[in-house]
Amino acid sequence: MLSWFFSSKKIIGLDIGASAIKMVQLDAGKGSATLNGFGFIPTPPQSIVGGEIADPTAISNAIKSLIAELKTSRKSIAVGLWGSGVIVKKISIPRVDENVLADQIKWEAEQYIPFDIKEISLEHYVLKTSTSAEMMDILLVAAKKPLVFRLIDIITGCDLSCDVVDLSTFALANCYTFNYGKNSDVVALLDVGAQITNFAIVQDGQVLFCRDVPVGGFTFTADISREMGVSLEEAEGLKLAAFSNQQVPSEVSNVLKNTTESVAEEIQNSFNFFGATGATGAISKFLITGGASGMSGFADYLTQVTGAPNEIFDPFMRVKYSTRKFSREYIDQIRPYCAVGIGLALRKKDDS
Ligand SMILES: Nc1ncnc2c1ncn2[C@@H]1O[C@H](COP(=O)(O)OP(=O)(O)OP(=O)(O)O)[C@@H](O)[C@H]1O
Ligand SMILES: [Mg+2]
Predict the structure, then answer these.
(1) CA nearest 86: which of 203, 196, 222?
(2) What is the whole-number distance in angstroms between the Cα of residue 189 and the centre of ligand 2?
(3) Cα 195 to ligand 2 centroid, rounded to whole Å
(4) In terms of Cα–Cα distance, which of 10, 16, 11, 9 is closest to 63?
(5) Near ion ligand 2, which residues have CB within 5 Å?
(6) Distance (Å, rounded) from C-alpha 72 to C-alpha 120?
(7) What topology does CATH give the domain 86-143?
(8) Where are the domains of the chain?
(9) Cα separation of 291 and 279, whole Å?
(10) Along the 352 residues of the chain, how does pLDDT read in single tens digits?
(11) Residues enclosing ligand 1, CB less than 6 A?
């Protein structure tokens, strides 16, 4: 009975991507975590369009199949939120007392957040980055309520309970801090997905800046399809062939080169924007993950334009797995798809 009680409280990380939906289940101990289950299912076609959930029923059905695949009795979900309905902004305000801070923040948010204040969920985090005694740095997080409610509806409709709604970028940062520890290096994390690149800058376990950059692997696929007049399916095949060094028409390579430059430029703009918001230190490196991090040459191109060295983000640096349950080959396969899901699965039920 007791074990049922405990297991029912354990959480599942749910990362709903435009290309694939991922579920991660961990067994968490004191400061340790072991992979217990991973589920992956292609996102139903047309169910996420332009970064928005267009077909909630299709997403629900996919979540139900993942739960069945995991054979889990857990009911509690931590889900990631992403996209243009979410805004994160660092502001500096005169230092005020903790008990009036929330009111002050609400007032400040009206000036900084371009959404109707009544229509958003607002959270704030006091950063330890301020160098002046009179000012405090605050990270404002605003999410459009309909976006949050739609996710909660989908999850509760699957007979699950939505206990944590987190930003995907924060989950990425959480996964990094768990695996790499808190340190003073300013590190940029990039999860290059299909339609979005989750981008977070982290130092000492704090998110200094984050943004969902609306580019990813699908940008390449769409460019090939448009430039060469082939279907999206064919374009995806040509892209994957090119990135695995197979022979492809030279036109494909030309498109990929141009798209690499424009996608890298979008990401570089975010690096620059972070610089403009008052960096506490130069970025020492970036860690790259996500399905589209498999694009050979892309990370090195980013290094060339940003000047920051790159490494592969390893979500299994400290997260353990049993080699009896999961082969190393399997872990290598899922490694680029796990970071956000692991960051979510590490959350506790009472985290907001
Ligand atoms: N080996 C590979 N080389 C290059 N690209 C790849 C490779 N494998 C997968 N991709 C690309 O990775 C993308 C999917 O990655 P991922 O599953 O991380 O996206 P997602 O999380 O579903 O999307 P998003 O985060 O944008 O919502 C697709 O665009 C796919 O073409
Ligand atoms: Mg993703």
Answers:
(1) 196
(2) 13
(3) 8
(4) 16
(5) 17, 193
(6) 33
(7) Dna Ligase; domain 1 (3.30.1490)
(8) 2-84+144-219+257-345, 86-143
(9) 29
(10) 333 344 435 899 999 999 999 999 999 888 899 999 999 999 999 999 877 899 999 999 999 999 999 999 999 999 999 988 888 888 889 998 888 998 888 888 888 888 888 888 898 998 887 778 899 999 999 999 988 999 999 999 999 999 999 999 999 999 999 999 999 999 999 999 999 999 999 999 999 999 999 999 999 999 999 999 999 999 999 999 999 999 999 999 999 999 999 999 999 998 888 876 655 568 899 999 999 999 989 999 999 998 899 999 999 999 999 999 999 999 999 999 999 999 999 998 665 4
(11) 17-20, 193-196, 216-218, 236, 240, 243, 290-292, 294-295, 337
Superfamily of structural domain 2-84+144-219+257-345:
ATPase, nucleotide binding domain (3.30.420.40)
Distance between CA atoms of residues 294 and 106, nearest Å: 41
User: Ligand 1 test: best mutation among 19, 190, 198, 338, most atoms within 8 Å of CB?
Assistant: 19
Tell me which residue has its CA closest to atom 19 in ligand 1. 193
Q: Cβ–Cβ contacts within 10 Å for residue 19, how many?
A: 19
Q: Global pTM?
A: 0.93
